[in-house]
């Protein structure tokens, strides 16, 4: 017997999938008469109701609210765990159940989302560290209210069908680049896959804008902005350095992880930092000792977690309000890698 889905129930009644989802997830906005018709049709079709759903439940107020945090590769950095902890802390104050859902970083053509996200038991989804286009589009197609932390450039905000939260990127990187120009640096390189994440692309935009405003051009030969393998950063950045026509005065990197690898490779080549080459990162990484001297941009993880939690609660309550793109302020920290004492 084929699985009975929300879409099949919706088709049989001539209603939208979202309307059926609202009934089984205890959301408001469906009349009592239509609600009863949907439940009766589901029973007739032998639909397997979510565990926490009772066909006799009258309203959302009697149902617990379940919010999923769907995340790829959270183990790669405490950056993600700090945000998740803050989300859990905030949601607990609202008596909301947090459901942790692990997602793969890449998927096959026949991949389907975990049942916990599709069976009607989840009322909202917070999506983090997901940059695979197919996976993002599957999530975007879900009728469940959603808030994304960043996205791929392949899936712009207008196609997410949810809210988008980002760190402030352009101004921070422009500030660092302009600071280096003021200190006499004239040739610049940028390292980081600018199409992997919207945040990376915005950082490159801030970098390019600062150069343009000071009459300097972006030299493609000094930039590594193409895709970089998850496990081959060191090898690919090293190969890139070997192809440079000359060593630039400064490198601006998309994040601290890239900057620390670059710093290690430059030092190994006998290049003095910052005397010969200045460099910067982003994220204020605390996991690599090399980052202690790295000019960077501090991202306020707790503020991000707090904002994600409040936004998904708002989105659940007001599902029809236009989607939002929200920026959380970040802070530039100048350190020794650009020839500064910490500011």
Automatic annotation (TrEMBL):
The keyword DNA-binding applies. Residues 3-76 form the HTH lacI-type domain. Pfam families: LacI, Peripla_BP_3. InterPro entries: HTH_LacI, LacI/GalR-like_sensor, Lambda_DNA-bd_dom_sf, Peripla_BP_I. Signal peptide: none annotated. Gene3D superfamilies: 3.40.50.2300, lambda repressor-like DNA-binding domains. The keyword Iron-sulfur does not apply. Keywords: DNA-binding, Repressor, Transcription, Transcription regulation. One of its GO terms (molecular function) is transcription cis-regulatory region binding. It comes from the Bacteria. Coiled coil: none annotated. This is Transcriptional regulator, LacI family. The lineage of its organism: Bacteria, Bacillati, Bacillota, Clostridia, Lachnospirales.
